[in-house]
Amino acid sequence: xxxxxxxxxxxxxxxxxxxxxxxxxxxxxxxxxxxxxxxxxxxxxxxxxxxxxxxxxxxxxxxxxxxxxxxxxxxxxxxxxxxxxxxxxxxxxxxxxxxxxxxxxxxxxxxxxxxxxxxxxxxxxxxxxxxxxxxxxxxxxxxxxxxxxxxxxxxxxxxxxxxxxxxxxxxxxxxxxxxxxxxxxxxxxxxxxxxxxxxxxx
Length: 202
Prior knowledge:
The protein contains 5 helices and 7 strands. It has one domain (7-200): Maf protein, CATH 3.90.950.10. Helix 1 links the parallel strand 1 (7-10) and strand 2. It has a 7-stranded mixed sheet. By secondary structure, it is α/β, with parallel strands linked by helices. Helix 4 crosses helix 5 (185-200).
């Protein structure tokens, strides 16, 4: 039996996302540290898919630190926009766009779309790269919902204020951390990944 590593590097510079991922990985019982604490900078997300971006970020953090690394790539896929913003979700309104600017652009793009046609889904692919091993552990999750016509709630981050969770009838920004973890794309992907990691080291 191979023991779980004592430390895992998290390849993300998004503070809100870091908190969410650390919470979801808490059950592993290992130390999870941000790559910035080890002097690792973010890399450009040039992949055409969430999977490609997730893997490249984890591989970069692992190669730079020599430690196992975890990364996720996620985004919002809107039915009426042919899948946009997709992998460009974080930079939908420009390279340095704020969450508010991205939301403003999304609401403008959907201003003439009726409520029944505002379906959308958050997607997440999480990757775990182990130094010296050729194959990464990868898991994916999806959270179906729809896009509201205006912001609701002040919690969460990204597009949470305009994403309606159909099970609760609330925007993602109005959910508690526990409610969001149970439903979200990232929660689903990381729970699957934790199982894969535990199996790998058992």
